[in-house]
TrEMBL record:
<dbReference type="InterPro" id="IPR018211">
    <property type="entry name" value="ADH_Fe_CS"/>
</dbReference>
<dbReference type="InterPro" id="IPR001670">
    <property type="entry name" value="ADH_Fe/GldA"/>
</dbReference>
<comment type="similarity">
    <text>Belongs to the iron-containing alcohol dehydrogenase family.</text>
</comment>
<feature type="domain" description="Fe-containing alcohol dehydrogenase-like C-terminal">
    <location>
        <begin position="190"/>
        <end position="379"/>
    </location>
</feature>
<dbReference type="GO" id="GO:0016491">
    <property type="term" value="F:oxidoreductase activity"/>
</dbReference>
<keyword id="KW-0560">Oxidoreductase</keyword>
<feature type="domain" description="Alcohol dehydrogenase iron-type/glycerol dehydrogenase GldA">
    <location>
        <begin position="8"/>
        <end position="179"/>
    </location>
</feature>
<dbReference type="InterPro" id="IPR039697">
    <property type="entry name" value="Alcohol_dehydrogenase_Fe"/>
</dbReference>
<dbReference type="InterPro" id="IPR056798">
    <property type="entry name" value="ADH_Fe_C"/>
</dbReference>
<protein>
    <submittedName>
        <fullName>Iron-containing alcohol dehydrogenase</fullName>
        <ecNumber>1.1.1.-</ecNumber>
    </submittedName>
</protein>
<dbReference type="Pfam" id="PF00465">
    <property type="entry name" value="Fe-ADH"/>
</dbReference>
<keyword id="KW-0520">NAD</keyword>
<dbReference type="Pfam" id="PF25137">
    <property type="entry name" value="ADH_Fe_C"/>
</dbReference>
Length: 380
């Protein structure tokens, strides 16, 4: 088969690579920098330490530290306004997927104008590039892989949906993936972001767009998750586990850049839009049921995946759904939608919203609205 490989982001990986930030900024000829982060990293002092590194290379630094989980379109517009007003030439995204997605979206709006929504969905406007403003991503969680992906996901609370912007021009110019920055992540965030890594790998693995390249990365990501997620959850100071999960997130992100995602992420986005459920939590609930649904057409791949994850967990088993369910239990994730505030009257709306997701075109098995409703009802 013929396939392409495109990794526009320059990645530095390893303990301590965040200290390279002043050098990276000098290479970018940075003169006006805005750092995008969240309140938790500001309160913990991590944002302050990174800001000090920025100031070694650039004295004109602004900080936006109000990024919320599952960030809104409005937050993106606020940061875009700051970029325009401050004439920023470099954006630094420090945090999990939320901070990185906000920075990605803000760069689009700051340079192209208008509302972010016009670049989202099935009828999205094309995003031209490259951008004048450079973007450096510094992840502090092992989960989204947003430091290398072509996607940004945003909450449109007005319409109770999540919108996705997709373009290779969205990708960061540079990513500094430093596992040391993930050590302070609390167990519940480690669990939710970690199961998202596994979902990225699994959905890329069974995607209709999967290639030998994406499969190799997905398999390595699954291997690392199987050996290290529980350890990282149980002991956040486990340096080896933190490194493995940071690496897994990176590999899974590159894998789904090339193969895309599927039904799990489509449903989870609709769940989050209706009930404000954290993304990784929604993923953990939905993933086993979607595996069972898809297994009718890609059972062999799921069996291989189960073997990879279960072997690294030190357990047997060839049923991927059961392997994922056990892993989710071991890291304390809920298993039912009712446990996270989803009411029964939301299910029909969740099914309808899932049906319009662009992710469905890559899922290995077609799904009708009735199929999806039956699936989410089984999860309630």
């Amino acid at each position: 088969m013929a396939y392409g490989i495109h990794i526009p982001t320059r990645v530095r990986f390893g303990e301590g690579v965040a200290q390279d930030l002043p050098h990276v900024l000098r290479e970018m000829s940075a003169s006006r920098v805005i750092m995008v982060t969240d309140p938790g990293l500001k309160e913990s002092g991590v944002a302050g330490r990174v800001e000090a590194l920025v100031r070694e290379a650039c004295s004109d630094v602004g900080v936006y530290a109000d990024v919320e989980p599952d960030p809104s379109v409005e937050t993106v517009h606020q940061v875009a306004s700051l970029c325009r007003e401050g004439r920023a030439d470099v954006l630094i995204a420090l945090g999990g997927g939320s901070a990185m997605d906000v920075a990605k979206g803000a760069r689009v709006v700051a340079e192209l104008g208008g509302d972010l929504r016009r670049f989202a969905g099935n009828h999205a406007e094309r995003i031209p590039g490259p951008f004048r403003t450079r973007l450096c991503a510094i992840p502090t969680t092992a989960g989204t892989g947003s430091e290398v992906t072509f996607f940004g996901v945003y909450s449109d609370w007005e319409n109770k949906i999540k919108v996705t912007v997709t373009s290779s021009h969205l990708a960061a110019d540079v990513a500094l993936v430093d596992p040391l920055l993930t050590r302070s992540v609390p167990p519940n965030v480690t669990a939710a972001s970690g199961i998202d890594v596994l979902a990225h790998a699994l959905e890329a693995y069974v995607s209709r767009q999967a290639t030998p390249f994406s499969d190799a990365l997905a398999e390595r990501a699954m291997e690392l998750v199987g050996s290290s997620l529980v350890r990282a959850f149980e002991d956040g100071s486990d340096a080896s586990a933190r490194r493995d999960m940071a690496e897994a997130s990176l590999y899974a992100g590159i894998a789904f850049n090339h193969a895309y995602l599927g039904l799990t992420h489509a449903i989870a986005a609709a769940v989050s839009g209706h009930a404000h459920v954290p993304h990784g939590v929604a993923i953990g609930i939905c993933l086993p049921a979607v595996i069972r649904y898809n297994a009718h057409v890609c059972g062999d791949k799921y069996r291989r995946a189960a073997g990879i994850v279960a072997k690294k967990q030190g357990t047997g088993g060839s049923d991927a759904a059961e392997v994922v369910e056990k892993l989710a239990r071991d890291i304390g994730l809920p298993s039912r939608l009712r446990e996270v505030g989803v009411t029964k009257d939301m299910l029909a709306g969740i099914a309808r919203q899932t049906l319009v997701s662009v992710q469905l075109r890559h899922n290995p098995r077609d799904a009708s609205e009735e199929d999806i409703l039956s699936l989410v009802e089984s999860l309630w």
